[in-house]
Amino acid sequence: MEFSIKNGGPDKAKYDCVAVGVFDSRKLSEPAQKLDKASGGHLTGILRRGDMAGKGGSTLLLHGTPGIAAERVLLVGLGKEAEFGEKAYRDAVAATARALKDAGSRDVLITLSELAVAGRNAAWRVRQGNLAIHDAFFRSDQLKSKKDGSKPALDAFAFSVAGKDVRSATVALAQGEAIAQGMNLARELGNLPANFCTPTYLAQQAQKLAKTFKLKCQVLDRAQMETLGMGSLLSVARGSHQPPRFIVLQYHGGKAKAKPIVLVGKGITFDTGGISLKPGAEMDEMKYDMCGAASVLGAFHALATMKLPLNVVGLIPTTENMPGGAATRPGDIVTSMSGQTIEILNTDAEGRLILCDALTYAERFEPDCVVDVATLTGACVIALGAAASGLMANHDGLAAELLEAGQVSGDRAWQLPLWEDYQEMLKSNFADIPNISGSRAAGTITAACFLARFTKKYRWAHLDIAGTAWRSGKEKGSTGRPVPLLTHFLLKRAGKL
Ligand code: BES
Ligand code: MN
Ligand code: ZN
Predict the structure, then answer these.
(1) Gap from CA of 264 to ligand 2 centroid (Å)
(2) For 402-419, how does the pLDDT look when each residue is reduced to its tens digit (9 = 90+)?
(3) Phi/psi of residue 165, each to 5°?
(4) Are residues 155 and 202 in the same domain?
(5) Which atom of ligand 1 is nearest to the CA of 350?
(6) What is the rounded distance in angstroms from the CA atom of residue 423 to the CA atom of residue 33?
(7) What is the distance between the alpha carbons of residues 393 and 461, in angstroms, rounded to a whole number?
């Protein structure tokens, strides 16, 4: 796929197709008015006859419009003009991509990028437009025996912007492209089932990334983790035949002494629940339990592609969570790398058990801040659904930065509190801390409270992506979230937004 920025009238552009917006109640957007004029009122004629009312998401493909250089014109419904905003913009670009995917055009000029979106500039429109198109075109057929050979004919996309915006839009396009590639990597990894995507495979992917971008990459094995005292992480790995791994990625783009941002991703390549076995229904979806890890790798891909002037460390604890003769039992007590002992009351609350040792390991980097990303709790799906990731933090400034990054990227997060009241729910009679609270109440928060016991030495935020990392049902698949949020956070930190 090829993307470009274009400045100039849509009527004279020689593309296979030009896409222009129409607001609800048949009002032509400005670029559409230009085409209409050049075609001697052809478009208004069509609207008058009732073929296109401008409803959001609707499209109408026209051939041989008089007076227009392009072979086709795609009318794209934008919904009500007064309500036209971020979501309507993204939806319109996505509808354009879907309508043209298999419609014969090889290239398209998209004029939607000229439309005003409140509070957002042309750079934003181009970045988001690029992501929307990649999202609409993504498919996973790596493991189909017959590849769906028909590559979409549509392969080149030009966004039109005003002359004064060409520069910033060109930079934004490259950023969007880097983010999209990072998302695609995260999506491929997320969709890959657990018989392919093992901890060893994830480590190989990290090493491949390191080789491509000249990053530092260390992969620790079980013996090395034992030496470090990662008893909590290793307790999760006991039931599996797959050896666990601990991946350390380091990107040095900033000043030698600049403190790094540490990203930690949960890498459970399959979560059966362990001895606290999960019910069978939809258990296949637990192959996505490594999407935190995948998003860290995706963010690294984007970060390294853009060569951001930052120092960033990626930590990925990765293992399967399986039942077995050697598996950890409910009631077992283990010692974490921090020295705190943990009573494992439910082996299905394993994410926090692998994250806590990674969070302790993070201390050695004297981080500026640490952000962990995890498909941690079913409760988060109940609370926020697929619209937002759950955000919890021990530092309000860091939380605000991440919320803003989510807002700008359209990959939103919503903050939940980490009050002392919730900490009191985590009490064990036999160890320093239990891995679950005695009740199901506030499950997303009590999980974060557990992590908070291991993050006292630095600024820390936690993203629960259980509801956002993949879609269930007919459109089942990994979404690539929260790569956009993480990358926007890094872009802003690097002063590039
Ligand atoms: N990976 C799951 C969380 C999850 C569940 C994500 C469903 C998406 C959909 C996690 O390891 C888990 O099993 N959490 C338990 C915690 C409970 C035992 C306190 C849960 O949410 O049920
Ligand atoms: Mn679990
Ligand atoms: Zn899990």
Answers:
(1) 17
(2) 999 999 999 999 999 999
(3) -100, 0
(4) no
(5) 11
(6) 60
(7) 4
Atom of ligand 1 nearest to the CA of 437: 19
Q: Which amino acids are annotated catalytic?
A: 278, 352
Q: What is the pLDDT of residues 289-319, one digit of tens each?
A: 999 999 999 999 999 999 999 999 999 999 9
- Give me the domain span that covers residue 73: 2-142+150-160
Residues 6+ positions from 26 with CB-CB distance below 8 Å: 47, 48, 52, 53, 54
484 in Cβ contact with 394 (< 8 Å): no
Is the domain of 96 the same as that of 227? Answer: no
- Please state, in angstroms and as integers, the Cα–Cα distance from residue 207 to each residue in 201, 213, 243, 299, 302, following that order: 10, 10, 17, 15, 16
The strand pairing partners of 108, in sequence order, are 17, 157
Number of Cα atoms under 13 Å in the Cβ half of residue 299: 34
DSSP SS3 for 43: helix
| Cis peptide upstream of residue 482 (ω within 30 degrees of 0) | yes
Q: Can you give the CATH number for the domain in which 120 is found?
A: 3.40.220.10
Residue 407: phi and psi, rounded to 5, are -65, -50
Q: What is the number of the ligand closest to the CA of 319?
A: 3
Q: How far is CA 251 from the centre of its chain?
A: 20
Q: Verify that 136 and 208 share a domain, yes or no.
A: no
Residue 165 lies in a domain: no
Please tell me whether the overall predicted TM-score, pTM, comes out greater than 0.90 for this model.
yes
Residue 47: pLDDT over 70: yes
In this structure, the answer to whether residues 279 and 391 fall within a common structural domain is yes
Main-chain dihedrals φ then ψ at residue 33, nearest 5 degrees:
-65, -40
Residues with a CB atom less than 6 Å from ligand 1: 271, 289, 346, 348-351, 375-379, 381, 436, 443, 466
d(CA 278, ligand 1 centre) in Å: 9
Contact 469, 291 (CB under 8 A): yes
Query: Do 114 and 211 sit in the same domain of this protein?
Result: no
Nearest bound ligand to the CA of residue 346: 1
Question: For residue 65, what are the CA distances in angstroms to 42, 155, 491?
Answer: 7, 22, 42
**C-alpha atoms less than 13 angstroms from C-alpha of 275 in its C-beta half-sphere:** 18
Q: Which of 129, 160, 191 is the last residue of a domain?
A: 160
